[in-house]
Write a structure and sequence with these properties.
InterPro entries: FAD-bd_oxidored_4_C, FAD-bd_PCMH, FAD-bd_PCMH-like_sf, FAD-bd_PCMH_sub2, FAD-linked_Oxase-like_C, FAD-linked_OxidoTrans_Type4, GlcD, Oxid_FAD_bind_N. The chain has helices at about 5-15, 25-30, 50-60, 115-125, 140-145, 155, 190-195, 230-240, 255-265, 285-300, 315-325, 325-330, 350-365, 390-410, 425-430, 435-445, and strands at about 20, 40-45, 65-70, 85-90, 95-100, 105-110, 125-130, 165-170, 175-180, 205-210, 215, 220-225, 250-255, 275-285, 305-310, 335-340, 370-375, 380-385. It is of the alpha+beta class. It folds into four domains: about 5-90, 2-Layer Sandwich (Uridine Diphospho-n-acetylenolpyruvylglucosamine Reductase, domain 2), CATH 3.30.43.10; about 95-215, 2-Layer Sandwich (Uridine Diphospho-n-acetylenolpyruvylglucosamine Reductase, domain 3); about 220-260 and about 270-325, 2-Layer Sandwich (Alpha-Beta Plaits), CATH 3.30.70.2190; about 335-425, Alpha-Beta Plaits (2-Layer Sandwich). It is globular and about 70 Å long.
């Protein structure tokens, strides 16, 4: 609870219309996409960087916990206030695109700008911002930086870290720093901006982001390959990607995911297929598109593809991608609750990873539909629980074994979702004692009183 001194300070600072302790607001900001609920002590909406600074300075002096929050669309509890404290939300006021520089191909934005809105605005100028997380219609750019968000286009264009040129960050003591520059090259000093990316609000509050833009490719086209065996599909992925073709996206659905989409939407998918791969290429001239699709078809068929379809118009393009975009909601046919994680391995290790998932599925008796971004080795594994009360503990054991399998295959706990609360206890699987101590020492150096998003990432 916040005492009267704290209540008075925050109301005087931002005004009564931007600071709330009533139950309605606390409930609205007590959960994220995990559906876990942790009630904060208050919710505050700063209007600018100066107010963020004053909020953090005061909270640091009085040892009040602050939980930075974008849109609350994360899957790991990164924006949950597990010990009360103050939720600092950037969504209400800090949502402006400050500059789009068409000469230097950069943009400056506030952290509350919605990803898809930003994409749309730069595309009006024939520019392109590639990171496209599944939450692009809800998630903020500040949240994307804090989680290092990816998306389907990562296979060719990379993820958020590849587009962050500079940040303005408010530290736990209220000090404001600039990290990075607008220049393409900058080797002066430590890469502090890189340290802030994927830090999940544990090291500072991002107040401004400078992003790299690209020229928008005028042409794109998609195709789908059908495989009898999922191992063949996974082999086709890395062999295609190493052949000189770089698809914008290379996505997959396994048999369980295909069946779920078909059961729910009846789209005419091949329910007996072991897997489907959906890919997209882009370019400047038609010949470039045609060459890429021809090479992909060649490598797919050399690795067990039994049917290959190229979209010939926009409607067919949408139809091809429908199954992938609706896979997550469709797999609810297999259970009342899903444990959803996003392990990532080097592309060549995808066949081995999915073999291990199949063994774990058989061992525990769970259906585990998988889909995701095979172009960058990122697989969404979904342990489906028919009876959550009965099966939850066993489900967590199965997920830990999947994490162990990914780590043993030179992979990582998460490619997109982050660590937050849900994966915090698994960090020692991926990092040794010295590495975890390094993380904790960095956290302590920047936030010695541990007021910023404590308990996240195993820190």
């Amino acid at each position: 609870m916040l005492d009267q001194q704290h209540l008075k300070y925050f109301k005087n600072l931002v005004g009564g219309e931007d600071f709330f302790t009533d139950l309605a607001h606390l409930n609205a900001y007590c959960y994220d996409a995990t559906k876990e609920r942790h009630l904060p002590s208050g919710v505050i909406f700063p209007k600018n960087e100066r107010e963020i600074s004053q909020i953090l300075k005061y909270c640091n002096e009085h040892r009040l916990i602050v939980v930075p929050r974008g849109a609350g669309s994360g899957f790991t509890g990164g924006a949950l206030s597990v010990s009360g404290g103050l939720v600092l939300s950037v969504e209400k006021h800090l949502d402006k695109i400050l500059e789009i520089d068409t000469k230097n191909l950069i943009a400056r934005v506030e952290p509350g700008v919605i990803n898809k809105h930003f994409q749309n605005e730069v595309e009006k100028l024939n520019l392109f911002y590639p990171p496209d997380p599944a939450s692009e219609n809800q998630s903020t750019l500040g949240g994307n930086v804090a989680e290092n968000a990816g998306g389907m286009r990562a296979a060719k264009y990379g993820i958020t870290k590849d587009y962050v040129m500079a940040l303005r960050v408010v530290l736990a003591n209220g000090e404001i720093i600039r990290a990075g520059k607008k220049t393409i090259k900058d080797v002066a000093g430590f890469n502090v901006a890189g340290l802030m990316i994927a830090s999940e609000g544990c090291l500072g509050v991002i107040s401004e982001i400078t992003l790299k833009l690209l020229a928008k490719p005028p042409l794109k086209q998609s195709a789908m390959g059908v495989f009898n065996h999922i191992e063949d599909a996974m082999n086709a992925v890395y062999k295609t990607m190493s052949s000189g073709v770089t698809p914008v996206a290379m996505e997959f659905l396994d048999n369980l995911s295909i069946k779920a989409v078909e059961e729910r939407f009846s789209k005419g998918l091949p329910k007996d297929a072991g897997a489907i791969l959906i890919t997209q290429v882009d370019g400047v001239v038609k010949e470039q598109i045609a060459w890429q699709l021809n090479e992909i078809e060649k490598h797919f068929k050399a690795n067990g593809c039994v049917d290959f379809k190229i979209a010939q118009n926009e409607q067919e393009e949408q139809d091809l991608w429908f199954s992938r975009r609706n896979a997550s909601q469709s797999i609810s046919v297999y259970g009342k609750k899903k444990l959803n994680e996003d392990v990532t391995v080097p592309r060549a290790n995808l066949p081995s990873l999915l073999q291990e998932v199949a063994k774990i599925s058989q061992k525990y008796g769970f259906k585990i539909p998988c889909f995701g971004h095979t172009g960058d080795g990122n697989v969404h594994v979904n342990i489906m629980l028919e009876d959550p009360k009965r099966d939850l503990e066993k489900g967590h054991q199965a997920m830990e074994e999947i994490f162990q399998a990914a780590i043993s295959l030179e992979g990582t706990l998460s490619g997109e979702h982050g660590i937050g609360l849900s994966k915090a206890k698994f960090m020692p699987l991926a990092f040794n004692h010295s590495e975890m101590e390094l993380f904790r020492n960095i956290k302590k150096a920047l936030d010695p009183n541990n007021i910023l998003n404590p308990f996240k990432m195993g820190l």
